[in-house]
Design goal:
- By secondary structure, the chain is an alpha/beta fold.
- Helices cover about 30% and strands about 15% of the residues.
- The protein is built from 11 helices and 12 strands.
- The protein has helices at about 1-25, 40-45, 70-75, 150-165, 210-220, 260-265, 295-305, 355-365, 380, 385-390, 395-415; strands at about 55-60, 80-90, 105, 115, 135-140, 165-170, 180-185, 205, 225-230, 285-290, 315-325, 340-345.
- Strands 3-4-2-1-5-6-9 form a 7-stranded mixed beta sheet, sandwiched between helices. Strands 10-12-11 form a 3-stranded antiparallel beta sheet. It has a two-stranded antiparallel ribbon with strand order 7-8.
- A hairpin with a 6-residue loop joins strand 3 and strand 4 (about 115).
- The longest helix has 26 residues, at about 1-25.
- The radius of gyration is 22 Å and the shape is globular.
- The protein starts with a helix and ends in a 6-residue tail after the last helix.
- About 50% of the residues are buried.
Length: about 425
């Protein structure tokens, strides 16, 4: 056992040394306004990781270089690399699906098989790893605990570790920045095969890139994977996506733009209620609404100092809106005109979407005690029943927020071990 620990420590030091070498090479290049995603850094500064190797790739439509060219095409067209198979996460290889049980497919441009990993562990689909030397991972995460891409990547990492296959993450920026950590912290580590949402001990907004999340998962789950993270060159934790020079590619069908991404760590909680979050509109997760909602009554609760909710409005505005979901994938209120609340970010550095979401939940319950309902998914999204129970008991939002402080401080300390850049 001691030998295993020493070997793991040596591997970590080796990976860190490689990472720092890549950063030093990047730093020597002329400065550029545009961030270079991991795929560009791999093929220019770290090609030895894949040269002469048999490679499989977990990716989707977000796996492109800074010029918009697909990872698949760049890797397949490189004669020094043998790209043999593709894996896809939730929403499929093209990012268009919003349903479980996605079928396997074939990439029409290269003829490579695409094995879907969404909807269970699907052990037969990992057989492509048996003849691989390296498993590449390139997915655009969104910076919130609810996204399933990290769980799917962790599933692949576990299978790769069992086969002695190295995992190389081609990192990308956290769209909402890597400084703020917000919300309640999921206290437990779960099996990513069954807990696609909330399988790691992270808060609602975690401030980690996918590469850093997978480093945490490797340790937390004891996977002992041979994991290397290739950085997104030129990105700093204080940089938001619209300052990277990279084009916004919807990471999932209902993540239309960066504004939605900023609200998502909070408004995703409403997926576990009987309110719409705007699926089936062009502004999903920027709104919440229902046929019975009285927006002005809710806003009055938010702004009334006696209820203690006003701090939730720091850095954002909430106004009334009417919207009609068209073919919403959550099945909520299709074709029904809804009265709703529209959220807009006014100060990114001060805005806490998780606090505003809790204030909204409390205000809507106060304004509509007979209409508002929690659904069965709420506890899963909220990392347990505590938040729901507190709201049902009528606890103040300030008391709820205060209980988050100590776990967030502990997470920040743990998170520091994984902040390579």
């Amino acid at each position: 056992m001691a030998g295993t620990t020493e070997q793991s420590s040596e591997n970590q030091e080796s990976m860190r040394a490689h990472f720092l070498l890549v950063l030093s090479l990047v730093a020597c290049r002329p400065s550029a306004a545009q961030v270079r995603p991991g795929i560009d850094v791999l093929l220019t500064d770290s090609a030895h990781l894949v040269a002469g190797k048999r490679v499989v790739l977990l990716t989707n439509h977000t796996g492109v270089d800074a010029a918009g060219h697909r990872d698949v095409d760049r890797l397949y067209g490189d004669t020094a690399i043998r790209l043999t198979a593709l894996f896809s996460p939730e929403h499929g290889f093209r990012g268009l699906e919003d349903r479980p049980g996605l079928p396997d497919a074939v990439d029409s441009a290269t003829g490579l098989p695409i094995y879907s990993l969404y909807g269970g562990s699907r052990p037969p689909n990992y057989a492509a790893l048996d003849s691989a030397d390296v498993a590449l991972v390139d997915l655009q995460d969104i910076g919130a605990r609810y996204y399933t891409y990290p769980a799917t990547a962790t599933q692949l990492m576990r299978q790769a570790a069992r086969r002695g296959v190295r995992v190389v993450v081609l990192d990308r920026p956290d769209p909402v920045g890597g400084e703020a950590v917000q919300g309640n912290v999921h206290a437990e580590v779960a099996d990513p095969d069954t807990a696609l949402v909330g399988f790691l001990p992270v808060p609602m907004r975690h401030g980690l890139t996918l590469g850093k999340l997978l480093r945490l998962a490797n340790d937390a789950l004891g996977l002992h994977a041979d994991l290397v993270v290739v950085p997104a060159a030129g990105w700093r934790r204080g940089t938001y996506f619209d300052a990277t020079g990279l084009p916004w590619i919807k990471p999932s069908p209902n993540m239309p733009d960066l504004e939605s991404a900023f609200h998502y760590p909070g408004t995703c909680l409403f997926e576990g209620t009987n309110l719409s979050v705007g699926r089936g509109t062009t502004f999903a997760f920027q709104v919440v609404g229902a046929p019975w909602l009285d927006p002005q009554a809710v806003i009055r609760y938010l702004r009334d100092e006696r209820w203690g909710m006003r701090d939730g409005l720091i850095g954002a505005t909430v106004d009334s809106i009417t919207f009609t979901p068209t073919a919403p994938t959550d099945g909520k209120y299709a074709g029904v005109p809804l009265k709703g609340l529209r959220l807009r970010v006014t100060d990114r550095t001060r805005y806490d979407p998780t606090r505003l979401a809790v204030a909204l939940l409390a205000a809507i319950r106060a304004a509509h005690p007979d209409s508002f309902r929690f659904g069965r998914r709420f506890d899963q999204l909220a990392a347990g029943p505590e938040l729901r129970a507190a709201l049902e008991a009528g606890q103040s939002v300030t008391a709820i927020w205060a209980r988050w402080a100590a776990p967030l401080a502990a997470f920040r300390a743990t998170r520091g071990k994984y902040l390579l850049y």
